[in-house]
Design goal:
Length: about 130
């Protein structure tokens, strides 16, 4: 029920944006009809589930990849462009996080190495004094 309400709200916002751009209005019944159709297509019918399943089975995989999604979106240039853009942003973000983790682990190793060096210097000074 909450998901259906969220779809209805989002469709209402999109209709409002289109109405402002095109100087037109949508009736409440029209928004409700668009919401219902959208909900049924996305949640109840879930036509992509079968397509993803076929793609994975064909590729002998059990995981849907970004490339699978792009393949299904190829007929809509704007959707394909959007998915590609988001995929690249996600990949860049993931790479940044990996780099940060590497730097943190390198810094931690560097500290340990310098501490070990200090201990070695102290030890050699002690042995020289003896």
């Amino acid at each position: 029920q909450r998901l259906k309400a969220a779809v209805h709200y989002t469709v209402g916002c999109l209709c409002q944006d289109v109405a402002e751009d095109k100087a037109m209005q949508f009736s409440k019944q029209t928004i409700a009809a668009i919401s219902e159709i959208t909900f049924r297509q996305c949640v109840l019918a879930n036509p992509l589930r079968g397509l993803f399943s076929l793609l994975c089975r064909h590729a002998k995989r059990s995981t849907v990849t970004t490339e699978d999604v792009k393949l299904l979106a190829r007929r809509s240039n704007s959707l394909l462009k959007y998915i590609t853009q988001k995929s690249e942003e996600l990949a860049a973000s993931t790479m940044e996080q990996k780099e940060k983790k590497k730097k943190k682990s390198s810094a931690g190793k560097g500290r340990r190495t310098s501490e070990e060096q200090e201990a070695a210097v102290t030890e050699s000074e002690d042995s020289n004094m003896a």
